[in-house]
User: Which sequence fits this backbone?
């Protein structure tokens, strides 16, 4: 075991840190620490410009292979990139779904034509992506997709149905959609994986007003929307979609942890100022939060060092961070005391910590609820019997 | 960055697992724990001769293997898994560490080869009855025995409690303080052969029978000058470092035991049928098992990280910045693993239902070990308060 980074990796750290210092300035300075989860509705146009600026500097898709235009960075260097990006206060990436999900899927499952058509737009930050998985009837039961895909006389795929909880849909140019190609099929059989332009009459985006009063998620309605491409064959959609989940190796989570650290630091600063840091019960909870975050980092380092196929460590990791973050939101309120209830301004402008408290309630829901994670950990990680199905 | 076992470390771990599962069966544990010594002397000799676990961290110049704390923790994890009854923790994780950090060249030369050849066991005794104040305090404030210069040497007086294997160890490394001193001031460490005149030792039978403790009475104990380890009155910092290293070792054992309680429970639930199905199929139990698994994984990361830090701290050429993390890393590992083992052992008992409440099934051995090891060196709340002090004060 070795905890330190090599000299080459440290030089890489200097390079990215220096670039961010020089470039996260001027018109982009206002974006520092903005646009992350809970704040994604802020500065969309400015963040799009930032994404392209980042791309021009060669800092998008650092983990992609060089052959497709990425930087081919090692796991260590990806970790360093995400850490330094978060440390510098790099704004929430509008391109992260393309870079982290759509791109890797195309690299693994797409045809050469598809790679040539779609990867450059992700690399340059000029084409943004959103994810069309969840539906009103397909939440935890993700395979219960109702959205249909049918081929017209010309062989063109047309998509009809409703997706929900689609983040960045209103800012995106493309959506990857899982839809049923075989109307007689059930569950994970008979699905297709489609690439659909968001700029067409058959697509309607409606923002969902969240408990925060803001809207980062959307409903997306498809009414005979034209799919530009299908990735894999009709019927292979589930395989492609699940392969995509496998790309979530958690490298970017080390950047997410930097953001968590910023939040915890702010809570500690307040606790020192208002005397909560002297209260034994609060001291216990702050120490627990600090420990949880450190151990989250060590866990991620271990996961990245030796994650094997079929391993449940990514699920364990999600369950850990989501629960930890939710608790942090509650701790923030308890440290603030009665001041926690006073918002910035009417009608409903929240403080950063109030947003944290409320938004973290979604952490234990999206990407698989904590209950679903526990089911899968028990089944896949511990070999316990599968849940009975109602159909 | 390479946060995983090397092939050699993996081999050590696998060897330890295979050997210990074979020799430390349920019946072997039960037989050993019922004796006054608390371990099987023949098995200990086998470990010393064939496996050489006691030599892992001893430098090669003293006949040891010269390996590090990561290798040590890999073995401790397996010992915790089978609740091995042995003087390993006291001899190596207290005794060897004390000799390495505080021993003179002569003391190392005198004692380390004897530990390596299996002829000497050792322990560290620093806690007086004061250690039970406020529900447990394990730092320098727990040191109540006193030392003072006497002739060419030293005179020690006082009572020590909660001394692991104190009644059976051949060498007692004793922490005492100058009369009237407090906190980390005035503390000195002494290497004391257990048979010295003025030393009276008494086994304190324990609820967790798999690890034995003793009280040690020092009555006008006269020691020669060369019994002193390090500088007289300057031992407080070393003692704290030893306690931190012991926490990492204890956390490794706890993590191994926590994983075992999960494995035992899953196996039991797969076999136990109720309502015509294995109880492992019930979601109420699956979710609890998933929580146990999460705690095991996080605990494992905490232990491996703390082991790397401990290695830097033990190594004179180690990275100073990483070594400086020892108090925090040790507190985090001990706190998290204490909570984890208690949660997992308690949940395992519940998952086993009525048979978990019997003497016959092994779950109660883990449950008792969980509470005893949690309290030893300070429970999770005490570790969190240490961390809060580092962060907030």
Assistant:
């Amino acid at each position: 075991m070795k905890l330190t980074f090599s000299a080459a990796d440290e030089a890489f750290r200097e390079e990215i840190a220096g670039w961010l210092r020089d470039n996260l300035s001027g018109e982009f300075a206002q974006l520092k620490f903005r646009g992350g989860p809970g704040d994604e509705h802020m500065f969309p146009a400015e963040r799009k410009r930032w994404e392209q600026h980042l791309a021009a500097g060669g800092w998008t898709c650092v983990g992609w292979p060089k052959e497709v235009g990425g930087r081919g960075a090692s796991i260590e260097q990806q970790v360093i990139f995400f850490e330094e990006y978060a440390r510098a206060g790099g704004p929430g990436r509008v391109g992260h779904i393309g870079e982290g999900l759509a791109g890797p899927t195309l690299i693994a499952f797409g045809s050469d034509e598809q790679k040539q058509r779609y990867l450059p737009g992700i690399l340059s930050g000029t084409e943004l992506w959103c994810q069309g998985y969840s539906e009103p009837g397909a939440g935890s039961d993700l395979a219960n997709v109702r959205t249909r895909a049918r081929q017209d006389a010309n062989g063109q795929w047309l998509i009809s149905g409703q997706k929900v909880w689609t983040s960045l849909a209103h800012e995106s140019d493309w959506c990857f959609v899982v839809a049923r190609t075989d109307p007689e099929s059930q569950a994970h059989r008979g699905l297709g994986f489609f690439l659909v332009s968001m700029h067409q009459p058959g697509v309607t985006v409606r923002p969902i007003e969240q408990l925060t009063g803001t809207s980062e998620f959307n409903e997306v309605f498809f009414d005979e929307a034209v799919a530009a491409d299908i990735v894999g064959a009709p019927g292979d959609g589930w395989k492609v979609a699940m392969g995509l989940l496998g790309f979530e190796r958690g490298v970017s989570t080390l950047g997410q942890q930097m953001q968590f650290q910023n939040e915890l630091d702010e809570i500690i600063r307040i606790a020192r100022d208002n005397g909560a840091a002297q209260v034994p019960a609060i001291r216990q909870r702050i120490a627990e939060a600090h420990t949880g975050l450190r151990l989250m980092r060590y866990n991620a380092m271990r996961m990245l060092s030796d994650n094997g196929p079929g391993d449940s460590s990514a699920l364990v990791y999600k369950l850990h961070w989501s629960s930890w973050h939710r608790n942090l939101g509650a701790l923030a309120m308890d440290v603030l005391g009665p001041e926690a209830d006073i918002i910035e301004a009417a009608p409903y402008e929240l403080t950063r910590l109030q947003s944290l408290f409320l938004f973290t309630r979604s952490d234990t829901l999206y990407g698989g609820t904590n209950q679903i994670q526990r089911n899968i950990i028990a089944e896949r990680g511990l070999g316990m019997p599968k849940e009975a199905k109602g159909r | 960055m390479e946060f995983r076992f090397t092939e050699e470390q993996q081999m050590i771990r696998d060897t330890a697992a295979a050997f210990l599962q074979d020799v430390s069966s349920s019946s072997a544990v039960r037989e050993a724990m019922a004796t006054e010594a608390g371990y099987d002397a023949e098995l200990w000799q086998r470990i010393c001769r064939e496996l050489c676990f006691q030599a892992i961290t001893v430098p090669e110049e003293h006949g040891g293997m010269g390996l590090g704390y990561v290798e040590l923790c890999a073995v401790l994890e397996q010992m915790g898994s089978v609740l091995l009854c042995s003087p390993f923790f006291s001899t190596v994780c207290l005794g060897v560490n004390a000799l390495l950090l505080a021993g003179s060249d002569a003391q190392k030369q005198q004692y380390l080869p004897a530990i390596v050849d299996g002829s000497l066991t050792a322990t560290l005794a620093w806690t007086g009855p004061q250690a039970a104040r406020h529900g447990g305090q394990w730092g320098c404030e727990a040191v109540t025995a006193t030392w003072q210069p006497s002739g060419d040497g030293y005179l020690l007086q006082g009572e020590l409690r909660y001394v692991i294997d104190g009644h059976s160890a051949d060498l007692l490394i004793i922490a005492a303080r100058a009369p009237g001193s407090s906190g980390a001031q005035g503390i000195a460490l002494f290497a004391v052969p257990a048979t010295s005149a003025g030393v009276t030792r008494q086994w304190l039978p324990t609820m967790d029978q798999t690890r034995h403790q003793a009280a040690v009475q020092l009555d006008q104990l006269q020691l020669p000058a060369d019994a002193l380890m390090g500088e007289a009155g300057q031992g407080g910092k070393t003692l704290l470092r030893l306690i931190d290293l012991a926490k990492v070792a204890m956390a490794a054992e706890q993590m191994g035991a926590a994983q075992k309680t999960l494995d035992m429970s899953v196996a039991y639930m797969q076999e136990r049928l109720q309502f015509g199905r294995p109880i492992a199929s019930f979601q109420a139990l699956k979710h609890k098992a998933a929580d146990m698994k999460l705690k095991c994984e996080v605990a494992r990361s905490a232990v491996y990280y703390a082991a790397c830090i401990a290695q830097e701290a033990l190594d004179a050429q180690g990275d100073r910045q990483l070594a400086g993390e020892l108090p925090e890393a040790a507190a985090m590992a001990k706190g998290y693993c204490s909570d984890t083992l208690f949660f997992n052992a308690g949940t395992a008992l519940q998952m086993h239902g009525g048979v978990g409440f019997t003497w016959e099934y092994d779950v109660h051995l883990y449950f008792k070990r969980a509470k005893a090891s949690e309290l030893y060196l300070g429970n999770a709340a005490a570790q969190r308060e240490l961390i809060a002090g580092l962060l907030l004060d």
